[in-house]
What does this fold into?
Amino acid sequence: MKLVNLSDFGIRNINYYWERKERYNLTEVELAAVGLINGQAQVDESIIPKLKMANELLKPFGFELIVKDAYRSKELYELIRKKRYEIDGQFNTDKTFSQIKMSHSTGLAVDVSLIDLKTELEVDMWDKLDWPDGIFINYYKLRQDPESKKYQELQDLLIGIMLKVGFKLGPRKEFHHFESIDL
Ligand SMILES: [Zn+2]
It folds into this structure.
């Protein structure tokens, strides 16, 4: 694994847990102890070309990727799990936070969303009120209301392009989590 900063390759990113320090009750000292020292998201360099290709394919639709979570050390996983048990409870945490495979610790997994290039804002691809079920790929498929249809179309677009450039969905089938096919 050779970790690189996404920003160095012009790929939009945030570091999810760095951004949400307060929400998860994490201090900078705790984060530094598990190797997280700034808001840069990092990935293994092997997936940079795939992410760039995804951006090229999204552009005609008026979108670009934003990577919202990427590499996490195994120690960071453990720290996050503890904090999320406190805040979100064990049930929702175990449903949405995989500690068995820890795929983000390989640098080959990303959580992504779309940026609307006209507004430069992140696009809503699910309704936060539907947490946690709304992040799984089939949630909006059976619903006919306009919002649900819009979410489904956006998720289908994102998934279609990510699969085309060499990613696969994770074992939990969250619409925003992708792993390199090499993983
Ligand atoms: Zn993920």
Remarks:
- The beta strands are 3-5, 42-44, 63-69, 109-116, 121-122, 167-169, 177-180.
- The mean pLDDT is 95.
